[in-house]
Design goal:
Elements (H helix, E strand, L loop, with lengths): L17 H9 L5 H5 L5 E4 L14 E14 L5 E7 L4 E6 L3 H7 L5 E10 L3 E4 L2 E5 L12 E4 L4 H5 L4 H14 L10 H7 L4 H9 L4 H31 L15 H5 L7 H14 L6 E6 L5 H13 L4 E5 L3 H17 L4 E4 L5 H12 L5 E4 L13 E6 L7 H8 L6 E6 L5 H6 L5 E5 L10 E6 L3 H13 L3 E5 L14 H10 L7 E4 L5 H12 L5 E4 L12 E7 L6 H8 L10 E6 L5 H12 L3 H12 L24 H17 L5 H14 L10
Parallel strand pairs: 4-6, 9-14, 9-15, 10-12, 10-13, 11-12, 13-14, 16-21, 17-19, 17-20, 18-19, 20-21
Antiparallel strand pairs: 1-8, 2-3, 2-5, 3-4, 5-6, 5-7
The protein binds adenosine-5'-diphosphate and magnesium ion.
Adenosine-5'-diphosphate binds next to helix 11.
Length: 695
């Protein structure tokens, strides 16, 4: 009789041979405990099984049937279709991505249970259903109750029999032979307070739930544990940072900035004033600043950063100001160089497209301390760039840089102050977790006179009308962006891509107009030339991929068309929108979607056309996407969130914070169960190095 412990290697589980063990290891599963923390991705609910001929649009159903046919469907939008059939009829299951994966999954005659919301497009269909493979029609889906867990599936797992059912076999065996209860470090009092089950119960029920409600309660318990650990790391990191002292000092009064401000042709907004105040206050502290400046596109963050750099210069400290593209770095440099010079502050530009001699000259001047503010791109992080006394590091559009790149620039000074900027506002839940050790300044107001961009989404049938509108706008002296998604080779033929569209439109609808094109495969130098032409009004239309997403400032651009808008994330759409409406003229954005659309895509477009508030967009984006892909969660070194959902678990997050404040401030006076929890967290996180937010 096998006796399993949590730390037992998975080879001791019946059915796990070397081949399976190898694949499991690839997914991070070595021990019984790893397997138990591998949570279902979704669940099939047998109580909602309906015969296929009885499905209704918008209804959440589970259907059980046999694969009758499957393959890639060509059309406006390439997709993978499976026709599933039961005694009463047939329905299509549709996936847009990843086509190649799905083409390896299905075989004619296989039985499946599929769950999802029914929609209609040339027949009933379910887009991106949850799927469970069955042995045959009478398959009871394994000793499962009414609700059957579905685990993440990949072809690699499938190949060695670790599809959902295969994983279920393993967990069943484990629970039958586990000789210990999963130890719980959360004091019982906390469980009661937040109505959370014990850890053992939560783990068991997440794999073997009786009801939907039970899944949610158990998920919340597991989420609480994750958030507690995450926040612990954030607290720890903040505490470590607070012990660092910088060896440069700001001695002059903040009033010196007044000279610069006076020269500006406009009044500062309240948000700008407040942010400058917060930053200056940080700079005057003994600990290095670690601050993020966030605010919607066009709110005027650059000026705030310049004010800080100016203040540094007046204290004989140098500033490195890094932007993600040459165009942007150059724009900053050109906009500010003269004004700064008039006030006795020297600045220079360093990008990789400069001649070697010029680069060397700039680098030398910087090393010798002759340059106060060095604007530049990634070129700033190269080894040949050094500073005499780097006091302040500014990173524009920080999400465009990797942790390593930011770190490399930072390391060019001795504990310099750090200011990172972003136009992708960060939802509060994320600022608490991921950026918890960053101080944040927020600009909520836009400079006066800006009109929100009029936004609508349409399907492609209206394209002719849209083009007529574009010609109209150009006749009135406006300029137009037409944006296309970046398309992988494998799908190229089916989708409008920027190169084909350019050929078609510049020779057709927009013949006689000045049309330019930029995308990622055009050489940086050439790309910048075209962007400059557009900026200088020498082009009417700029056809582009998302390379224009960041920071470009052309107040004369009043229209943006986004093709295949369904393929863009919400935050990205909003970023793109920020390229227009930068002047006083009314700007218009038309997002063109190519059906069939998933529900999420529709929701996204709907939301996008209804709100122009970047903060609301950020919250919604988080909700529709999940936080994983955003904001460098992956590269931060923080533990992965498997159960927690930052969009809905705000209360748990706050609860975890509260508990941690207690642990960090008064652990000695707490009950022993709390002290144990603290010790446990210290141990659990000991080997984790995290890089949060900016640093
Ligand atoms: P972002 O926050 O997106 O980086 P920028 O700093 O590029 O925004 O500013 C956008 C535009 O607004 C620039 O042309 C800038 O000169 C202008 N601007 C900045 N602050 C103000 C202000 N207080 N009043 C009017 N215009 C401003
Ligand atoms: Mg900017």
């Amino acid at each position: 009789m096998t006796d399993l412990r949590l730390h037992s290697p998975l080879q001791y589980v019946k059915g796990v041979g070397p081949r399976k063990a190898e694949v499991l290891a690839k997914y991070g599963m070595y021990t019984v405990s790893d397997l138990l923390w591998y949570f279902p991705r979704s669940y099939l609910d047998r109580s909602t099984i309906v015969p296929i001929n009885q499905v209704k649009v918008d209804q959440m159903v589970t259907i059980v049937g046999q694969v009758k046919a499957h393959g890639i469907l060509h059309g406006r939008r390439k997709r993978y279709e499976v026709i599933l059939e039961d005694k009463t009829g047939a329905i299509s299951l549709i996936w847009f991505q990843p086509l190649h994966y799905w083409s390896r999954v299905f075989k004619k005659g296989q039985w499946y249970a599929a769950s999802g919301v029914v929609s209609y497009f040339m027949g009933h269909q379910i887009i991106h259903p949850d799927l469970g493979r069955l042995d045959d029609e009478s398959d009871n889906m394994i000793h499962a109750g009414r609700i059957i867990p579905v685990y993440p599936q990949t072809s690699e797992l499938n190949k060695v029999g670790l599809n959902s059912k295969g994983i279920r076999r393993l967990t069943t065996f484990v629970f039958e032979h586990l000789s210990e209860t999963i130890p719980d470090y959360l004091p019982g009092e906390e469980c009661r307070l937040h109505q959370l089950p014990s850890l053992h119960e939560a783990i068991y029920r997440i794999h073997y739930p009786d009801t939907r409600a039970q899944i949610e309660t158990c998920r919340r318990r597991l989420a609480f544990d994750e958030l507690l650990e995450l926040q612990f790391l954030v607290f720890r990191s903040r505490r470590e940072r607070e012990t660092v002292r910088k060896n440069h000092r700001y001695r002059t009064s903040a009033n010196v900035i007044g000279a610069l401000i006076k020269k500006l042709p406009f009044e500062l907004t309240t948000g700008q004033k407040q942010s400058i105040k917060e930053i200056i206050n940080d700079l005057q502290q003994e600990q290095p600043m670690n601050r993020m400046l966030q605010g919607d596109v066009g709110c005027g963050k650059t000026l705030v950063a310049i004010a800080a750099a100016f203040y540094a210069a007046k204290n004989t400290l140098q500033t490195a100001f890094m932007a993600p593209t040459e165009i942007l770095a150059e724009q900053h440099y050109r906009n500010w160089h003269d004004l700064l010079a008039e006030e006795g502050v020297t600045s220079a530009l360093l990008t990789s497209s400069l001649s070697k001699a010029k680069k060397e000259q700039v680098a030398k001047a910087c090393t010798e301390g002759e340059i106060d503010i060095l604007f530049g791109t990634h070129a700033l992080i190269y080894d040949y760039v050094s500073f005499k006394q780097l006091g302040l590091v500014i990173i524009d559009e920080q999400h465009r840089f990797g942790v390593k790149q930011r770190g490399k620039l930072y390391a060019k000074g001795e504990n310099p102050d750090l200011l990172v900027m972003t136009a992708t506002p960060i939802p509060r839940t994320l600022t608490l977790t991921l950026y918890g050790d960053l101080d944040i300044s927020t600009i909520k107001d836009l400079p006066p006179g800006r009109k929100p961009v009029r936004t609508a989404w349409r399907t492609q049938e209206v394209r002719e009308k849209v083009y007529a509108f574009v010609r109209d706008e150009i006749a009135k002296g406006g300029q137009v962006y037409i944006i296309y998604p970046i398309i992988e080779k494998s799908e190229r033929i089916e989708l409008e891509n920027v190169e084909d569209a350019y050929r078609e439109l510049s020779g057709g609808e927009f013949k006689g107009y000045r049309v330019g094109m930029v995308h990622g495969r055009i050489k940086p130098k050439e790309r910048d030339d075209i962007l400059k032409q557009f900026h200088d009004g020498e082009l009417d239309i700029l056809m582009a991929t998302t390379v224009v997403e960041v920071g470009l400032d052309n107040p004369n651009a009043t229209v943006m068309i986004i093709e295949h808008a369904e393929r863009f994330g919400l935050a990205q759409l909003h970023q793109l929108r920020g390229r227009i409406g930068r002047g006083s003229k009314q700007a218009t954005l038309i997002a063109i979607a190519h059906p069939p659309l998933t529900d999420i895509a529709k929701k996204r477009l709907e939301y996008f056309s209804q709100t122009t508030d970047g903060f609301k967009i950020a919250e919604a984006d988080l909700e529709l996407r999940g936080p994983g892909e955003m904001y460098g969660v992956k590269q931060s070194g923080l533990p992965e969130l498997r159960a927690a959902r930052l969009s809905t678990d705000r209360d748990l997050l706050e609860a975890a914070r509260k508990l941690l404040v207690q642990l960090f401030t008064s652990v000695q006076s707490l009950d022993s169960t709390y002290r144990n929890l603290y010790t446990y967290l210290v141990k659990k996180t000991a080997s984790r190095n995290v890089t949060l937010g900016g640093g």
